[in-house]
Specification:
With 263 residues, this protein is of the alpha+beta class. Helix content is 48%, strand content 7%. One of its GO terms (molecular function) is glutathione transferase activity.
């Protein structure tokens, strides 16, 4: 069985989970313990960051590399177009998601947690210690401290990130005006990257993630609750409803790893 070494609330891991679900692949989630688990992960993958996919003796790190591997090894329900123009657009949008949405949404989320009293008090009181560890572990330590102190981010930097995110979401909403998916007549890597990496802007409103229930449907104030971006989030909700498998009573992530076995 495929094994996904992950943080449950990593948006890069969510990108991979969306792809795995779309392709109908069975996989086991293995929750990496921030700190010691990342050291073990480095021993087999050469990096401490998640996601890492284990497929038999194959170890694949990085969400884009995992997506390309899954496309080669499990070509049913393809996610990378063969048409050259569509393929180029697919990779451009994936890069936009990974770099712009992925990086700037982390700044925006942690800004909301540290600077917006209503958002902070609605999320943190019911957050479990494991959730907070995962949240901190999913974000590079030089960006923000979840408990309230911004490190190296001025208000101007956060404001710029927020404005950039709004522009990106507005552009994506326009792209989706008259078509169901971003690139082709079926979901592609671009769709799953954009949907997964937008998780921190607004968490999915459904039983898809093992997170505090009050976090579902919540997100960055001024974006997640803005009617201007409803077309985008409605599109994402439909993508989730059609392709993302909900959690079940037996699908909670495993603890660890303190050691990782290689076949």
């Amino acid at each position: 069985m495929l094994e996904l070494y992950q943080f449950e609330i990593s948006h890069y891991c969510e990108k991979v989970r969306l792809i795995l679900d779309y392709k109908g692949l069975t996989y086991k989630k293995i929750e990496v313990t921030p700190g010691i688990g990342q050291i073990d992960l480095y021993r087999i993958s050469g990096q401490r960051q998640v996601p890492v996919l284990k497929d038999g003796s194959e170890i694949i790190a990085d969400s884009t590399a995992i997506a390309k591997y899954l496309e080669r090894q499990y070509p049913e329900r393809p996610i990378i177009p063969t048409n050259p123009q569509q393929k180029a657009l697919c990779f451009l949008l994936e890069e936009l998601a990974d770099q712009s949405i992925g990086q700037k949404s982390r700044m925006a989320l942690f800004s909301g947690l540290t600077q917006n009293q209503n958002f902070r008090t609605s999320i943190l009181p019911t957050a479990t210690p494991d959730f907070l560890k995962q949240l901190v572990g999913a974000v590079p330590s030089d960006i923000l401290n979840v408990l309230g102190v911004g490190v190296g981010l001025s208000p101007d930097v956060v404001k710029s990130a927020m404005e950039d995110l709004k522009q990106v979401l507005e552009s994506l909403s326009m792209l989706l005006l008259d078509k169901p998916y971003l690139v082709a007549d079926h979901p592609t890597l671009a769709d799953f990257a954009v949907a997964g990496l937008s998780m921190y802007i607004k968490f999915p409103d459904g039983p898809y993630l093992d997170v505090p229930s009050n976090l579902r449907g919540k997100g960055v104030p001024g974006i997640a609750d803005s009617t201007a971006f409803e077309p985008f989030f409605n599109w994402r909700d439909r993508l989730y409803a059609e392709y993302r498998k909900p959690l079940t009573a037996t699908s909670s992530p495993a603890s660890g790893p303190t050691s990782i076995q290689i076949d």
